[in-house]
Structures are given as structure tokens and as C-alpha cells.
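Standup, Tuesday
Yesterday: got the pipeline producing C-alpha cells again.
Today: sanity-check two examples.
Blockers: none.

Example 1:
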Amino acid sequence: MNLDFSAVPRLPDGRTAQEHVEQVAATSRAVKVPMGPRSAGGTGQMMWHVWGDDSSNKPTLLLFHGGSGSWIHWIRNVQALSRHFTVYAADLPGL
């Protein structure tokens, strides 16, 4: 992820916004799913950040952001939600 957080003030604990994003992302696993029919030359991938374990008995929760953002729209919620759900946060920048 190559985002410019230079205009964002430091968090109360002294971390930068970029450090916070990297720390939360590090608690997830990235899953890339091929998109489009291969016969039509589909080469795109859908990116998901996943918190939790698919083998657990927790229900699955899918999170889709709006606007032209990314999975970080959910950054305040994903770790807390992962206590009760296996959380899949879509990463659709620019969509």
C-alpha cells in the first residue's frame, strides 16, 4: 500500500497513521482471488484482508467500503469484530 499520510496528525500514542495502518494490516492475512474468465484473458485479482480463522465456528462477516477508499475505511472496527466473526474486508481502491 502506497498512501500519503503526511497531512494526518500523529495518533495520541505517538504513532503515525501509516504505522497504525501497517500494524492493523499485520494482524490480518491477505487473500487474492482471481477475477474474470481466464478464457477472456482475465488477469485481475480481488484483494481481501481477513481477520480470524475460516476453521472456527464463527460466522463470516463481509465488509465492503463505499466511495473511492480502501479496506482502511473499516480500520477502527476489524479487530473488535474479529472476536465474534471471521472478517473479510474487501480492498477496492478507486471503486
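Example 2:
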Amino acid sequence: MKLEIERMFQAAGFPEVAICRLGEVYGPAGRIMREIAGRLRSGFCPWPGDGEVPVSLVHVEDAAEALVLACERAAPGCRIYNAGDDEPATWRQFLDAIAALLGTRRALHLPEPAARGYAVCASWVDRLLGRPEAVTPHVLRLLTTPKVLSSARLREQLGFAPRYPAFHSGLREALAGL
């Protein structure tokens, strides 16, 4: 759907549109950090698949900087920029680093069919308890689909210089806010 919306903007010929495709955003008090840290601290953090799905992460401060740069400096026309850190990682690397910093057990990687079954059960429990659903089919798709972005255009054309060029550099700070 996002690609279709981008195509609509391009086809419409708007004089000034800057589209930013963000990596997986993490940072202090962010939902992804709260979810992962909470599950790891509970001793049970199920994760779909083997965790070897590559992903570009982006610290929330760097994501905000990318958006500001795109608004202030993008050339006229419909411009598309990717914003991610300079060193894509796998979900396993990200989760293992969080577990190490928290001093908890590592995430449990579930075969995808088992993860889908877990997601259905977890959604039922969340609904029964009146909580927002944490694991939905959409979330499972996101966690099992590679998402590697190059920020080269953003750096070259707009001067983007991420404060946190790799998730390791921003992870301790992101966890401190929890």
C-alpha cells in the first residue's frame, strides 16, 4: 500500500513532496523497546523464524533528523529518501544485544507456523484483557520480511549524518529510558 501511495504522489506531479522510508525505529520509551525489553525480562520472548532476517534500524533521533532534512532541503519534485543506520543487522543480533544489556535470557526463535499459532493465541488474550494486540499477522509479516535500506541518497543530497550509525551505538541509551 505504501508503494502505491508513493506512485500516486509521483504520478500526480506535486511540485514538492519528500517521502521518507524509515528503517525500524527504536529509541527510549518507544513501543518496540518496551515490548522487547518487557518480554525478555519476563523470561519468555518468542520471535518468529530463525531471527536471521536482515533489517535496517534507525534511532528515533536520526529518524527525526532525516524527516527535518527532507522537509528543509529536498529539491523540488517528488523525492524519495531512505533512512536507516549504516550497518544493517538481523533481528537475532538486535535481540541478543538487548538481552545482553538487560542481563536476560535470549529470545526464543519459533518456526513460523508455531509463531502464527502463538500470535493468534496472544491476540485472543490481549483482547480478553483489554490490551492492545502486540502480535498481529501484520507484525509477523514485518518481522519475517527483510527490510534493508540505503541512506546514501539522504547523506549525499541532504547531508544526513546519523548520530547513531549502527544500532549498537544507540541501544544502551534507548534502554536507559525504560
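Quick observation on example 2: The beta strands are 16-22, 24-26, 46-48, 54-55, 57-59, 77-83, 89-90, 108-110. The chain has eight helices and eight strands.
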